[in-house]
Amino acid sequence: VIRNGQVADGTGKKLFAELDCSLCHEGGSGPDLSAHGSKLRPEWTLAYLSKPHRVRFKEGGGRPAARMPDFHLTPAEAADLTAYLDSRRAPGRFPIMDESLPDGRLAMLGKQLTERLDCTKCHQVGARGTSRGPDLTRVGARLRRGYIVALLREPARVLPGSPMKDLGLTAAEA
C-alpha cells in the first residue's frame, strides 16, 4: 500500500483495530469494508474519514439508524487508515479499470444512457430525480469505475437485496 509515495507501515490496520471498526463494519450496522478498495476512491475515503458525514438518508429523508462517528483523526491517521482500506480489494468481483475521468464523449453517452433508462425515477442526478435510491450526482468522485460497471451489469450480485433492477446493460454500455 502506498501513501505519499511511501510504502505504508501497517499503521492503518492497527488503527482499524484500535478504533474497533470491526464492531460496525464486520457484521454490524455499518457497510462491509472487506472490498472497500475495489469500491471507493481513496480521495473520497480520505476526505470522508477527515470529516464524516451522512452519505445516505433513509427513505423519506430520515436519518439512518447508525452513523459513522467522527474520531477526529489527524491527517496522518486518516491517510494511514485510507491506505489500509484501499488495500482491501476484491479484483475477482470488481474489474480493475482506468480511473481517469471520462472524456466529453463518454460523459455524453453516459448522460444519454441515464436519460434512456430513466434513472431519475429512483435516483437524483443534479437537480432532477427522486431520492428513492442513492444520489448519483457525484457518484464518479466517490465510487471506482469497476464497481460502478459491476453494479450496473449485475445489481443483485453486487448488492444482494437491492431494489435496483437488472438493466440488461452490455459491458460497453455500463
What does this structure look like?
15% of the residues are buried. A hairpin with a 2-residue loop joins β1 (2-3) and β2. By secondary structure, this protein is mainly alpha-helical. The protein has nine helices and four strands. The mean pLDDT is 86. The strands form two sheets. The protein has a two-stranded antiparallel ribbon with strand order 1-2. Strands 3-4 form a two-stranded antiparallel ribbon.
Compact overview of the structure:
The protein is mainly alpha-helical and 174 residues long. It has nine helices and four strands. A hairpin with a 2-residue loop joins β1 (2-3) and β2.
Indicate the percent of residues in helices: 25-40%
> Which structural class do the helices and strands define?
mainly alpha
Number of helices: 9
Strand order of the largest sheet: 1-2
Beta-strand content: under 5%
Q: Which regions have little confidence, pLDDT < 50, spanning 5+ residues?
A: none
Kindly, what is the distance between the CA atoms of the first and last residues, rounded to a whole number of angstroms? 29 Å
The shape, in one word, is globular
Radius of gyration: 17 Å
How are helices and strands ordered from N to C?
EEHHHHHHEEHHH
Biggest sheet layout: 2 strands, antiparallel
Report the mean per-residue pLDDT as an integer: 86
